[in-house]
Amino acid sequence: MRIKAEKISAAVAQLCIEANRVLPEDVYTALAKAAETEESPVGRQMLSSILENARIARTEQMPICQDTGMAVVFVELGQELRVEGDLYEAINAGVAKGYTEGYLRKSVVRHPLDRVNTGDNTPAVVHLRLVPGNKMKITVAPKGFGSENMGGIAMLKPAQGRKGVVDFVTSVVEAAGANPCPPIIVGVGLGGTMEYATFLAKRALLREVGTPAANPLDRELELEISGEINKLGIGPQGFGGTVTAFAVHVESYPTHIAGLPVAVNINCHAARHKDIVLEGEEE
Amino acid sequence: MEPIRLQTPLTVADTAALRAGQTCLISGIIYTARDSAHKRLVEMLEKGEELPFAPRGQLIYYVGPCPAPPGRVIGSAGPTTSTRMDVYTPAMLAAGVRGVIGKGDRSQEVVQALMQHKAVYFGAIGGAGALIAKSIVQAEVVAFPDLGPEAVHRLQVKEMPAIVIIDSLGQNFYTLGRAEYSKR
Known about the structure:
The complex is a heterodimer.
Chain A lengths: L1 E3 H17 L3 H13 L3 H20 L9 E9 L3 E3 L2 H15 L23 E7 L3 E9 L1 H4 L3 E5 L4 H16 L7 E9 L1 H11 L11 H14 L15 E11 L4 E8 L6 E6 L4
Parallel strand pairs in A: 1-3, 2-4, 7-8
Antiparallel strand pairs in A: 2-5, 5-10, 6-9, 7-9
Helix pairs in contact in A: 1-4, 2-3, 6-8
Chain B lengths: L3 E4 L4 H5 L6 E10 L2 H12 L12 E3 L27 H6 L4 E4 L5 H10 L2 E4 L5 H5 L2 E8 L8 E15 L6 H9 L3
Parallel strand pairs in B: 1-2, 2-3, 3-4, 4-5
Antiparallel strand pairs in B: 2-7, 5-7, 6-7
C-alpha cells in the first residue's frame, strides 16, 4: 500500500484549521461541568465567557485563541504503508497551507535567538511512531506558548517517590499561576529518560478528558495531584476559585534503577487537537 | 456589580479611582504591542525619539492578533502573557501610558511603577480571542509592519471587557482571589 505526499499535506492543512476553530467535545463538556462546580462567582463568569468563546469560534469559523500555536503533529504510520515523497516536507506543506488559508497566526521564528518569523508557521514539531498495519493516523495539536512556557521537568531521586512527584507537579502549577490561562489540563510524564518523560507529558494532553489512566498507580496519582492542585485556589483565569485544573493526565514508562524523571506539560483551557486516519491505495 | 465604563484617553483621576477586582468596559482607541514592538518602542524612548503614537493617556493591549478573514476587521485577539513585557513597562508608564491590558502576574518593578504613576494593569480573558474580537470595531497597523502579528495596531474598541488586576495602590486581584479560595 502507498500514500501520496499531497494527500498527507491536504489532511494536515484541514486538521490545522479545524483544530484551531473547534474545541474538542470532551474538553467543552468538561469546562461546562466546571462552570457548574466552580465555587467562585467570578470563576463561573470566566468559564461562561470561555464557553461562549468556543461557541463563537465554532459557528463563526474563528480561531478559539489568537495564539494558534506551534503545530505539534503526532503520526502513527502503519509499517506496511509506503509514503510517496518526503513525509516531513508533506506535513510542513500542510501546516503552511492550513495556517495561511485558515487565517491563523504565524507564530514560529526560524532561530530562537535571531527570531525572524518564518511567515507560514513552519516547521511543525513531528512525533513519528511506526505501528503495525497499513494506515496512517495524524493528530495535529496546535500548542500555544502561554501554557507551554510554564511546564517543567525534574529528575527526582527514587527515594522521593510518590510524594516527590505530587509536590513537584503541584509546585509547577502553583508557580504558573494565571499565566497558562487556567483552568488547565496538566500532562504528567513519569519515567523513561529525560526527553521521553517530556514527550509522555505532551502526549498525555491528547487523552480524552474524563478517561482515567490505564495503569492503577497512574490513576491514583491523577486523583491525588488533581486534589492538591485544586486546593491552590488559583481558579479560572487565576482570579481565585476551586477549579484550577479540570484534568490531570499521567502517562508512565519503565525507568532506570537510579532515576525518577517527572515532566509537566501544561495546556490552557483551549486544549486543541484533531486527528484523522488516512487509508493507503494499492501499489 | 455594574461594570465601570471607561472612555480612552484616560486621565490620572480615571485610573487612580479603579480598584482591583472591578469589571470595566473599555471604549475608544487602544494600541497593541507585545515583545518585539516593546523592544523597539523603549529603544526609541531611550534615544529621545517620538513614538509612532502619542502615549499620554493611552492604554496598551498585549496582543498579537490573528489575520483578519475576509469581511472582518481583525481575527481572534485575546491577551498574551504580560510578564514578558515587565522589563519595558516602567518606561512606557513613565512616557504617559495610563494602563496596560494582558494576563498573568507582573514583577515587583511593574507594581511599583503602576503605583508611582497611578496607572492600572487590566486583565482580558486569556484564550477568549474570538469573543474579544467582537468588541474591536476597527483595526489598522500604525508601526512596524515587518513584525507581522507583533506590529503595533491602533484598535477602536467598543465595550471591551477587562478586569482590574493591579490597581494604583498596588492591590493585586490574583493574590486576593487566590487567598480567598486556597485550602492549603
